[in-house]
Every structure is written in structure tokens, then in C-alpha cells.
Amino acid sequence: MIWAKAEGCRVWDAEGREYIDLTGGFGVAALGHSNPKIAAAIAEAPVAHALGDLAEAEVTQRFREALPWPAKLGVTGEDAVEIALRTALLATGKPGIVAFDGAYHGTGLLALAATGLERFREPFAPWLPGPVHRRTYGEDPGALPEDAGVVIVEPVQGRAGARVPPDDFLATLRRRCNEVGALLVVDAIFTGLGRIGEMWPGSEVADVLCVGKALGGGLPISAALFVKTDLELAWDFGEEDLYTHTHSGNPLACAAALVVLDEVPKLLYRVDELSQRFAAAGWHGKGLLRTKTNAAHAHGNGVLVIPIPAVEGRQALMQAAPPFTLTNDELDEAFSRLAG
């Protein structure tokens, strides 16, 4: 499939066929496709690239100041996870990672090791780092292993089917980390920035909060946010940054991200309204991260959903992570097409 145009909550393929987009590009387009404020911010940015960690653009500095905590910036969500896990090793000296079944943290080797979906891990198993201690999502993991330097968790699991844990789950993990001096990394890459109704889900218990996807409004940028602010010092190795990318803090992405940080809080009420409509229609999950039994005809009927295959004991599902700008009429139309 080749996309020719995307605007708001609709996309068109190369043959001119229109689709209602309930995927938001895997949750990236929280403000809708081709958002005019984001487009204007990108067009007006005076610097397109600013030498990565050697010299930041002014807009990158403004972006950092707009974030609620100090941050180490990445390009992809996986970068943020990588930074967070490495921070834990630097801060604690302990290599053990506690992660959960059903987790998805990215496909780089370290993030993949923490990922709980076997279909992603198995082909690369000989290369995966560790040790990784797998626990059951949503349950008290019990006393953590002695080598555990970090627990990594999603507030709601995305790729496993919008699995929502009990209300006290994250607080329990905080307590378990405190018992052994481990860091708690909350991977809010999919769920953050309003997706489940909160800007910074898990920040009340996290040492490091990972955000990405929606952050750049369509451009690639991510951040490991040091909620425990002194963790920023773990990366003080002198003048040369030991984890960086050519495009870290890219000015165009930062200009877009400033729009996202300004606009998303204004739409949280709308996330709640749409969430209630999804729930009433039988979609499970939280906020605008929802799943329902797969409708194989969705694409053919002009609705884009994220397919979740029937593997590892779970039935096939379709997932919705739509833009927050989705209208009631568009959602009703999508529901009608899915029922057809």
C-alpha cells in the first residue's frame, strides 16, 4: 500500500481511495495528519540541523526548557529506552533487567531483550543482552533479584493488546524497586502525551520516563526524562557524549514538539470523550489506546486499524490509536464501516 495524502484523520492511497485512520501512524499523529500549526513551525524554523550534541539550535534549547524534567534526547522511542536502561546500569552498577510478558520496548538489541513478545526476540536470541528476569504483567513481581538494577514497564501495554494493569501496579513496582535500590523506568512512548488521558503517565513513580511517538507530531524525536533529576549526572563523562546520534535534538523535530507540548493539554478533555465512546462500543483498553476482536474487512471497508496477530495464546485483535482530533461523526462513520 502506498499513501499519497494524509490530512486530519483521513488518508488517501495512490489510487485515490479514502480511509478513516484509527491508527494515527501507530499513535504518532496525535494532532492529526498535516497539522497546520506543526507545518508552520517546521517551515519557520531558521535552522534545519545543528550538529547533534556538539551545538544545539535555539529551538532545541527552548524544547528542553518546555519539558518538565531534564532530558537526554533521542530520535526513536527505542533510543529513549536504550538511554533509560543504560542510565540504570550507570547509576546502580547492576546489570539485571526486570521486564514483563507482553512488553514491547523496541527492536534494538537491548530494548528487544526487555521486550516480552517472543516472535520479535526469537530470531535474534543468540545476540540478546541480559540478564533479563521476566515477570507477569499486572502482578506483584515479588522481591526483585539481587542483580536487578532496573524495572521497565508500560503504564498500559500497547502491542500486547492495550492491556490495562490494576490501579496499584505501578505503585507496587515503585516499592519493589525501593527495596533493592533499582530504578523504575516507565516506557510511556505509546501511552504518553495524552494517549491514555494523561500527559506523563507513570511520572508519579518513575525514575526515568520514556516518551516518543506523538512527541514530534510526525517527525522523529524521543526523550528519556530524568524525573529523578540527579540521574542526568550519570552521563557526565566529559566533553564527548557516549550515547548520541547525528540527529539528536533535531531543530525541525523540536519545533514540532513544542507545538505538541502546547496543544495536547487542550485536547485531554477530548481524549476522555472519545475514550467513552470507544468503551461504549465494546473496545477494551484505556483512553485512545483501544482493542477489539479483529475485523478482517476493516481495510477493505476503508478503515485503518493496527492488526495484532493471534499468537502466544491471544486471539487476533484490531487496535485503535487515533488522532485526538477525531470527530464524533468520523468515529461513528468508522464504527459503521467496521460493522459492515
Please give a quick description of this structure:
The chain is an alpha/beta fold and 340 residues long. The chain has ten helices and 15 strands. The radius of gyration is 20 Å and the shape is globular.
Description of the structure:
Helix 2 (36-44) packs antiparallel against helix 8 and helix 3 packs parallel to helix 8. A hairpin with a 2-residue loop joins strand 1 (3-7) and strand 2 (10-13). With 340 residues, this protein is an alpha/beta fold. The longest helix has 16 residues, at 77-92. The protein is built from ten helices and 15 strands. The mean pLDDT is 96. Strands 4-10-9-8-7-5-6 form a seven-stranded mixed β-sheet. It is globular.
Mean pLDDT: 96
Q: Percent helix among the residues? A: 25-40%
The number of helical runs is: 10
Number of strands: 15
Biggest β-sheet description: 7 strands, mixed
Low-confidence parts, pLDDT < 50 over ≥5 residues?
A: none
Q: What Rg do the Cα atoms give?
A: 20 Å
Content of β-strand? 15-25%
Which structural traits does this protein have?
7-stranded mixed sheet, alpha/beta, 4-stranded mixed sheet, 10 helices, 29% helix, 340 residues, 15 strands
Describe the secondary-structure layout.
Layout: E1 3-7, E2 10-13, E3 18-21, H1 24-27, H2 36-44, H3 58-66, E4 71-74, H4 77-92, E5 96-100, H5 109-114, H6 118-121, E6 132-135, E7 148-153, H7 169-180, E8 183-187, E9 208-211, E10 222-226, H8 251-263, H9 268-280, E11 284-286, E12 289-293, E13 303-304, E14 306-308, E15 317-320, H10 328-339
Parallel strand pairs: 3-13, 5-6, 5-7, 7-8, 8-9
Antiparallel strand pairs: 1-2, 2-3, 4-10, 9-10, 11-12, 12-15, 14-15
Helix pairs in contact: 2-8, 3-8
